[in-house]
Fold this protein.
Amino acid sequence: MISVRKLIANRRNASLSTGPRTVGGKLRSSHNAYRHGLATAITYDASAAVNIDRLVRALTASSNDYGRIEKARVVAESHFDLARIRAAKAEILWRIGNFENADNDDLIRVLNTIENVARYERRTRSKLRRALRAFLDA
C-alpha cells in the first residue's frame, strides 16, 4: 500500500501528462500512426488477407483444430506484416539516395523515420518467433 502523499502526487502527475491539449496538437497526434501506415493491422489489406488465408490453409493442412488454425493465422499475419515493414524500410532507404544535398534537419527526420520503422520490425520479428514456437509446439 502506498502512502496518501504518494497517491496524491501520482494523481497530480497523471493529470498533467494527459497528452496534447490544443486542437493542433491533437490533430498532429492523431495522425502519427498513419505516417507510414505500419500501425494498421495487416488484415485490413484485402490482398494480404487473401494471402494470409492461403498460408494458414497451407500450414494447417486442412486441420480442424481451432487452436492450431489460430496459431497458424498469427504466424501468417506476422510473416506478411514483416514483409510489409521491410518494403516500407526499403522505400525509406531508397529515398535517402535523394538526400545527397539535404540539410541536417532533413537527415535527422529520415533517421527518426528509419528508427520508428525498425521498432515495428523488431516487434513483428519477436511476434513471429513466439508464434512459430507456439505453432510448432502445438
Notes: DSSP finds five helices and no strands in the chain. The chain has a mean pLDDT of 85. Residues 37-137 form one domain.
